[in-house]
């Protein structure tokens, strides 16, 4: 049962779904889509898991998704600094926006480097020696991912800022629930993809699973060190507006973007 000292689970689910969908659409539509138009290629299909095109090809098209996530993640960071006095729901939504965008961008090269599949595998396609470029992707990805986690540890500190068990328990709860909500939304939407159920394993689930580091922030000392200049964030109580918005976003994400939007 919800108490005054517990963050509302349904609100956390809503925040996670909205933040993840924004990062996913940023990657596919803004990143790959705008890069496709910029190089003169023809957009064909937009889904939750990939953006397909025809005609002119450029390494900028597969690279565009991660670049867009980095830019939007940076905008979320700026918004977080400017809106520190806002409600806990808004503050934590911005934290999640940073997490899903930056961890998506930072983790994808690791996936491509190991699996030889996906955006960054396409970026390095044709380069030699290929083993060097795949290893470089892995190394740079690990570095970027760790730096992103350090940044997130500071960003989420107002929601913990203590070594006390209650603070760390709260942190684990408010990171795990949105992460699982995002993973669930990605898999459900991916199940409607034209490429079939295998799309869930190779594209849909990895897109959300890349943010797994969000659930490990309790291992970073920065989250436990209170900052006197930064007020502690209050509890995220039930927020009907966020919940209704998440339902609408989820319907669009699963029902429209899941099967895909034909663009040409």
Structure description:
By secondary structure, the protein is mainly alpha-helical. It has one domain (9-262). Helix content is 64%, strand content 4%. The chain has 8 helices and 3 strands; from the N terminus they run H-E-E-H-H-H-H-H-H-H-E. The protein has helices spanning 9-38, 60-82, 88-115, 119-123, 130-155, 165-190, 198-209, 240-257; strands at residues 42-46, 51-54, 261-262. Strands 2-1-3 form a 3-stranded antiparallel beta sheet, with helices on one face. A hairpin with a 4-residue loop joins strand 1 (42-46) and strand 2 (51-54). Helix 6 packs parallel to helix 8. The protein is globular, with a radius of gyration of 19 Å.
Helix content bin: 55-70%
Tell me, rounded to a whole number, the average pLDDT.
93
| SS class | mainly alpha
Radius of gyration from the CA trace?
19 Å
Query: How would you classify the quaternary structure?
Result: single chain
| Side-by-side strand order of the widest sheet | 2-1-3
Number of helices: 8
The beta-strand count equals: 3
Bulk shape: globular
Runs with pLDDT <50, length 5+?
A: none
Strand residue content: under 5%
Order of helix and strand elements from N to C terminus = HEEHHHHHHHE
Number of domains: 1
Give the CA-CA distance, first to last residue: 50 Å
Summarize the main sheet: 3 strands, antiparallel
